[in-house]
Amino acid sequence: MTINEQAPRRSKNAHYAISVRQEAVRLVESGLSQQAVRQQFGVGHMTLLAWLERYGTAVYAQMRRKQFTAVQKQHIARELLDGRLSEDEALLQYELRLKKTLRQWVAAYRASEVLLLTAEPDPPADTGAPLAAQLRQAQWQIEALHTLIDQAEATYKIDIRKKAGAKPSK
């Protein structure tokens, strides 16, 4: 049965024959992009996702995005902050799709560090307490600015931070 030779529609969800649905799933699992399959079969995004959930095999389950534990996220954030990995390298190494994900992990890691810094006892008064207080204040300001940028990026769905190697604006 070809795509155009479909059984009569019996209900809202019975528009496409099961063989057509399975063919769409097979194409996605073989490596064709979901967008190309949606265009080829003329279905919506959610329809194809539902077909993949229902008719997909173990191949599809492995193709889905990877889940990371909190410890793994902190480790990756630490590698980024220490300069051991660039964002692009981290995306490739950990099979991630968006730099935004990495930035969120780094922001969460920094926030946890700030909490640890505030929980530490203050240094003795005679060993540069004013400098330590200024340093703490500057760290809080930096964290607040990073949080503000993260929120603006999430709200407006744009990347605000400059990319490495970006040309300076005029």
From TrEMBL:
This is Transposase. Pfam families: HTH_Tnp_IS630. It comes from Hymenobacter arizonensis (Siccationidurans arizonensis). Residues 16-70 form the Transposase Synechocystis PCC domain. Gene3D superfamilies: Winged helix-like DNA-binding domain superfamily/Winged helix DNA-binding domain. SUPFAM superfamilies: Homeodomain-like (SSF46689), TrpR-like (SSF48295). One of its GO terms (molecular function) is sequence-specific DNA binding.
